Every structure is written in C-alpha cells, then in structure tokens.
From TrEMBL:
Organism: Mycolicibacterium arenosum
Endpoints of the signal sequence: none
Keyword flag Repressor: yes
Domain of life: Bacteria
InterPro entries referenced in this protein's UniProt entry, alphabetically: Metal_Tscrpt_repr, Metal_Tscrpt_repr_sf
Source taxonomy: Bacteria, Bacillati, Actinomycetota, Actinomycetes, Mycobacteriales
Keyword entries, A-Z: Copper, DNA-binding, Repressor
Protein name: Metal-sensitive transcriptional regulator
Family the UniProt entry places it in: Belongs to the CsoR family.
UniProt cross-references to Pfam families, sorted A to Z: Trns_repr_metal
Amino acid sequence: MTEPELAEEAAPHGYSPRKENYAKRLRRIEGQVRGIAKMIEDDKYCIDVLTQISAVNSALQSVALGLLDEHLGHCVTHAVAEGGDEADRKLAEASAAIARLVRS
C-alpha cells in the first residue's frame, strides 16, 4: 500500500462525525425497501409501489449528496491544499462521482 493510501485509510473520512446519522438514514431506507418487497408480495396497487420506490430513490439521492458534500469539503479540500498528484486524483475521483450521480 502506498503512503497516501495508508494516510487516507488512517484518517477519518469527511462523513465520520455524522457516521451514525448516515447509518440511521440507511437503515430507514433499508426498511422502506423491505416494505416495497412486502407491497409486491401483497399485490398492492402499481402506483402505490412506484410512489414508494420514488421515495426510496429520493432518500438515497439525499444520502449520496450529503456524502458528496462531505467528500468535497474534507477529502478534496485537503488534497487540493496538499497539491500534486493526490489533488489531481481526488478532483478526478469527485468529478467521476458527480457524473455517476447525475446519470442515475
């Protein structure tokens, strides 16, 4: 493992102070997904199922945007302050993550 990888692994992530909040939100989303599966098993009306799927997608997007904001404010900002190849790598990584979120 390279030195930057070791430093990154040891350093807390930008979301670390709010880790429990993210975990709670994801558990809530997990429960919503289980509820959707139950709706399908119970032959619920299509539009009701689609409405719940839309709610789960919105909740996941909210978590993703929060994590992206944390990443930009912590990991990318730190790397840019350090400069060099690590800054370029973090900026490219953030750009690719934004592109994936926009496509989804």
